[in-house]
Amino acid sequence: MKTSPDITDAARVVPPRRALLGGRIRPGRVWPLPGGPGCAGYARRALAEALTALRASRDVIADAQLMVSELATNAHQHACDHSPHELWFDPCDDGAGEARCAVFDAFADAGLPGYSWTSGDCGRGLSIVRELSGGRWGMLRARSRTGAPVHGKAVWFAVPVRVPAGPPLAAS
């Protein structure tokens, strides 16, 4: 059985760049997501580690894990042939009291699907993200943060955290 790469070893601090929202410049972390169905589990573990380092509450971490699981599953199911897939984490230091997480894939032409209660098993994940994030979520056109820049999209959400003062998060 093949195991996923170690989360701590795979994370890297990305250079300061425009944040997911607001155009402010700040550093963040990025993890390349493995292909296949293990993508969501890997994203949940990586995000839990990052939020734990910020001393986020267990409830916030649990909600964030559910949201990132939905986004990573969507990337795997709907953009599996459009790599790279990446998990982005941007702790905000602008007084907003939130951190932003995104799942990137290179399926740039895809938009966010609409939601229908009659759509069967598909489409409910984004409603979960909308509800748990309190409406602080969306999609933006972006470039990958690992390797050569690839155009795609990032679906993001925000969670409340108290970002400690001091240097940016560093990969361990």
Automatic annotation (TrEMBL):
<feature type="domain" description="Histidine kinase/HSP90-like ATPase">
    <location>
        <begin position="43"/>
        <end position="132"/>
    </location>
</feature>
<keyword id="KW-0547">Nucleotide-binding</keyword>
<keyword id="KW-0723">Serine/threonine-protein kinase</keyword>
<dbReference type="Pfam" id="PF13581">
    <property type="entry name" value="HATPase_c_2"/>
</dbReference>
<protein>
    <submittedName>
        <fullName>ATP-binding protein</fullName>
    </submittedName>
</protein>
<keyword id="KW-0067">ATP-binding</keyword>
<dbReference type="InterPro" id="IPR036890">
    <property type="entry name" value="HATPase_C_sf"/>
</dbReference>
<dbReference type="InterPro" id="IPR003594">
    <property type="entry name" value="HATPase_dom"/>
</dbReference>
<keyword id="KW-0808">Transferase</keyword>
<dbReference type="GO" id="GO:0005524">
    <property type="term" value="F:ATP binding"/>
</dbReference>
<dbReference type="InterPro" id="IPR050267">
    <property type="entry name" value="Anti-sigma-factor_SerPK"/>
</dbReference>
<keyword id="KW-0418">Kinase</keyword>
